[in-house]
Design a protein that fits this description.
The protein is mostly helical. The chain is 81% helix and 1% strand. The chain is built from 20 helices and two strands. The chain has a two-stranded parallel sheet with strand order 1-2. The longest helix has 43 residues.
């Protein structure tokens, strides 16, 4: 296979041949890891009730099981993008795919909560090798500007679509198999990638890539852990020394990281890119949209199974329209951008998601499958529209030679948004649930502790207690949880609205118009 060193400039692209069947097959192959990484961000949400019963994690462990995967992705994406520039992006993609498949086997047969947290962390490490490689290779496979633009839109829709497809696929698997089966899904898909990729993907590297700065790698990864832990602890248990201390440590490490990047001649993260208003606003929109979608999946997966009473398969099927809406809106975004300015389309997508969350706050007290489907369709369509255009705006706002760094930041914002969406919105939900839950006097000791940890724990306690007492526990637990859903939905709606309006103002001042090259 030929080796490409840089993406072509627009002038060069005008004289290059258009992509044929082989290049579109390459896009299909590159979509496999994108979908898997995105699905793995949300698929675990539907297995949480079964995991709670099988591994008996605490509330904090349960959040870490979900959260550590996107957290490790966010901390390592920029690092792995730089590493791919040096060793070859296709090579890194193949190495990461093999590792991702092997660790998926370890996660499937986890024996306790700590084991599963560790396996999810390793999945995040190998997942971080996949995402930067896909976009970098895509830019080298599609040399024609218009075709590359469509390919990027399809690639971007895979993130939003995969996030929603995770619960759908997970629900079907959980209906037929045990909770570990959601990880075995990765193995056959990655085997296909490992077999086909060497024949359809060209190798791509940058021979003059900057050396990997190890202290920056450590600071970027380690700095995220106490920061997110502090947010979770403070949101879930109130202001305390532990949470504030973790926040202070995380903020200090991130500050040291940023200052080091400013001083380095070849930084791991080019912070100067954030001086570009379009770039900074688009990254902020990407982050917030991912924050909203990942948090919603965590909430509705529990509502559909534990409150509405659907099976995992039924719950997953209920979210299928949201998956379709997300994918379709991402593809339609390319055509909409030809007739409407992106300064209106991007915040428009985010405000569509606001409408979904606002509806969620209204229907939470009288929750039903139809209301959840409507909420998910609105949020999924809004996120799909916004993220497709923000990913393209991020790449279009920087020179071609800095596109690799820009794509790494774009992907980092997506994963960090998903991580904090689970952490913050999950913690708000848990805090309201615990504050509202008033258990019957007959429930005490370990049963009371389990019921206060999670709704899944309360349902398990209710099922084990005598009829009237068990029914009362279930009633008060569901009431506390649905109130938490209403509050969480309102918090997410306000955050989305504020960011959407701010992004629209920035993009309008920058004159970001109709064409994708503006």
């Amino acid at each position: 296979m030929p080796t490409h060193t840089t993406a072509p400039t627009p002038r060069a692209a005008a004289t290059t041949p258009r992509a044929g069947a082989r290049e579109w097959l390459a896009l299909a192959v590159l979509m496999l890891p994108v979908l898997l990484v995105s699905i793995d961000t949300t698929v675990l949400s539907f297995a949480l009730p079964q995991i709670s019963l099988a591994l008996t994690p605490s509330a904090d462990q349960l959040l870490w099981i979900v959260d550590v995967y996107p957290l490790m992705l966010a901390g390592l994406l920029v690092t792995m993008g730089t590493l791919g520039d040096r060793v070859g992006r296709r090579r890194l993609l193949l190495i990461g795919s093999a590792g991702f498949g092997l660790v998926s086997l370890l996660a499937a047969w986890s024996s306790d909560a700590t084991h599963l947290v560790a396996a999810r962390a390793l999945l995040g490490v190998f997942g971080a090798t996949l995402m930067p490689s896909t976009l970098s290779l895509l830019r080298n496979v599609f040399l024609d500007d218009a075709q590359r633009r469509l390919a990027i839109a399809i690639w971007a829709s895979g993130f939003a679509g995969g996030s929603v497809l995770g619960p759908v696929v997970g629900g079907w698997l959980l209906e037929h198999f045990w909770w570990g089966s959601i990880f075995l899904l990765n193995v056959p898909v990655l085997l296909v990638l490992l077999v086909v990729a060497p024949f359809v993907l060209p190798e791509s590297r940058n021979p003059s890539a900057a050396r990997l700065d190890v202290p920056s790698v450590v600071l970027a990864t380690v700095g995220m852990l106490p920061l997110v832990y502090g947010i979770k602890t403070t949101a879930g248990h109130g202001v305390g020394a532990l949470g504030l201390g973790a926040l202070a440590v995380g903020a200090a490490l991130v500050t040291v990281f940023v200052r080091r990047q400013v001083r380095l001649a070849d930084p791991l993260l080019d912070v100067a890119l954030f001086r570009r208003p379009v770039f900074a606003a688009s990254v902020g929109a990407n982050f917030t949209a991912s924050f909203a979608l990942a948090g919603l999946v965590l909430v509705v997966s529990q509502v559909l199974q534990l409150v509405v009473g659907l099976s995992p398969r039924e719950a997953g099927t209920a979210l299928l329209p949201g998956a379709v809406a997300s994918i379709v809106s991402g593809l339609v975004a390319v055509r909409l951008a030809r007739v409407a300015p992106r300064w209106a389309l991007v915040p428009g997508g985010m405000l569509l998601a606001v409408a979904g969350y606002a509806l969620g706050a209204v229907v939470a007290q009288d929750v039903g499958t139809g209301g959840i489907v409507a909420v998910f369709c609105l949020v999924g369509a809004g996120v799909g529209l916004a993220e497709t255009l923000t990913n393209d705006a991020i790449l279009a706002s920087v020179p071609p030679e800095r596109a690799g760094a820009a794509s790494g930041i774009s992907e980092t914002s997506y994963e960090l948004g998903a991580s904090l969406g689970v952490a913050v919105l999950g913690s708000v939900l848990n805090a309201v649930y615990r504050a509202d839950l008033v258990l019957p006097a007959a429930v005490a000791g370990p049963d009371a502790d389990a019921a206060r940890q999670t709704l899944g724990g309360a349902v398990a306690v209710a099922d084990a207690l005598p009829g009237p007492v068990g029914a009362q526990v279930r009633t008060v637990a569901e009431a506390a949880f649905t109130h938490g859903v209403a509050v969480t939905s309102a918090v997410a709606a306000v955050a989305l609205a504020l960011v959407g309006l701010a992004v629209g103002a920035v993009l309008r001042r920058a004159g970001l118009g109709r064409t994708l090259d503006t």
